[in-house]
Amino acid sequence: MATRDTLVRPFLFDTMVFVYAVGSEHPLKAPCRGILDRAGRGELIGQASVMVPLEFAHQRARRTGDRREAFALAQEIGALCRLLDVTADDLERAIELGGRHDGLDATDALYAATALNREIGTILSSDRGFDGVPGLNRVDPADASAVAGLAD
User: Does any domain span residue 7?
Assistant: First the structure.
């Protein structure tokens, strides 16, 4: 079995995988829940920007009004993936990417830059804003065969 330190196929988690997994009913809830279950068993090992838990906590607290629960869940994200520090190089590349790709908001541009600066060519995300970013392949959580390919 793989561990958090031995990545099978490097990929970056987008925050929304976590948001959908614990959120209200949504077509992506079950696929994202399954992804996190597999991550918890060590079958699917991904990485995430250190910003992901904070973005998750912000979104969850805003939606539920329960800040304590939101931050407790955010703390668990680190147990499911390897967290990557954000650097000044990531910020510089994010600004460049954000200026060239209309579909990327500022946070997504930072995630794309974090992945690309570490030669991680795949992001697990339902957000089509990542499509068209050179060097970055988006795997949709609803695509079971593509998600299974992340464990190969």
Answer: no
